[in-house]
Amino acid sequence: MKNLVICGGSGTRLWPLSRNLMPKQFAKLINNKSLFQLALERNSAFCDSFCIISNVEHFFLAHDQMDASELNKKIVKDTKYILEPVGRNTAPAIALACLTLNDDDMVLVSPSDHLIKNHEEYEKAVARAAVLAEQGNIVVFGVKPAYAETGYGYIEVDGEDVISFKEKPDAKTAGEYVESGRYYWNSGMFCFKAGKFLEELQRHAPEIYDACRVALENASNSQYVRIGLEDMLMIPEDSIDYSVIEKCDCLKVVVSDIGWSDVGSFDSLSAELENDKDNNLIISNKYVATIDVNDMIVVDTDDALLICKKGSSQKVKDVVHKIKTVKPELANIHMTAYRPWGTYTVLENTYGYKIKRIEVKPGKKLSLQRHMHRSEHWIVVSGTATVTVGDRTTMVRPNESTYIKMGEMHRLANEGKIPLVVIEAQVGEYTGEDDIIRSEDDYDRD
């Protein structure tokens, strides 16, 4: 069985833990593991290969977390990546992946940002879905509702037959659904043969099928399939539910009680993490003292603090919308940013200068670049830096430094076997991350 892991979505309801460049599936929320890693480890029990469908900006996060997960190293090495420059929803993402497979390949489509706690029931559900898919069906997974949730879609079922799909209901209707016993949460997971899905997609959404074929033909045909921006924008945007699932006549459902959650808000995350004696969820690296408050959510990061009443955490997305207009970097990135070559942490940022801690992984290097509005000083803390400035390359060791004038082409590399740690002081009237003009880059960034 092939596992297609969908890594789209920004998880705005989990801000400030989740940001555009660190969406919720990659944030380490449960026992110091990300939901992405938990999904891989869970599905490795019955899947022999993975295909990760991700935004190109998140490729290195997915790659590094897969490498750090508790998986067979051969599976890690053979994993395929479909890299999208922009998202076009789930139907194109799944189509692009299926077009790289054989028609008879059995496929399990699973989101990367959901939590499943009952692994035994989950494996039984997947096994039954595979049997139904082998018979030529497209299978959806219905989850027994634990309560009347208004944030999920519902599937009306009769045995293994799907009667109807229902959009997110109001509270009264959701209660009626749960009480009837005929409705199940729509988990967003699917099982089918790759060729069967493509056949149904071609029948019901031929414009998506055709555009995906063209995009894939123009893309690099390798383990890392990178779709071009213009080709991606030519693909109509639609979900698998609307384009295929709700239209095909070969649909079956597997229903089960698998301890499922989409961890779509801090209220749902609160049910999975330890709360204090007053039922407050507090997430912080600092000791947080509370007085005469209960049923609160407190999330403290290096650059942002969220405080809200439990039951109101769905409104976090409205806060993020406002933040994008007044301080957009808070919605985009953490103080510590992850890059293909390593990480950087902003230690201080004020008008005229910025100070960073940069860590470069062994064997990695930054792009060959220059800046138009700032000069830089690099001080090596540990490891040995290979520094290129203009046409000169030198080795800089701990407690040594170098200086790069504004406008000079330069590069930082780690040719050693241990991480390289550098303190960078930027001086100039503008120190934004977009003041980078790249000449060469190992990661094909602009």
Automatic annotation (TrEMBL):
* Domain Mannose-6-phosphate isomerase type II C-terminal: residue ranges: 330-441
Q: Which UniProt keywords apply?
A: GTP-binding, Nucleotide-binding, Nucleotidyltransferase, Transferase
Query: Pfam families in the record, alphabetically?
Result: ManC_GMP_beta-helix (PF22640), MannoseP_isomer (PF01050), NTP_transferase (PF00483)
Superkingdom of the organism of origin = Bacteria
* An annotated GO BP: GDP-mannose biosynthetic process
Domain called Nucleotidyl transferase: residue spans: 2-275
Q: Which PANTHER family match?
A: MANNOSE-1-PHOSPHATE GUANYLYLTRANSFERASE
Return the protein name.
mannose-1-phosphate guanylyltransferase
What's the source species for this entry? Answer: Seleniivibrio woodruffii
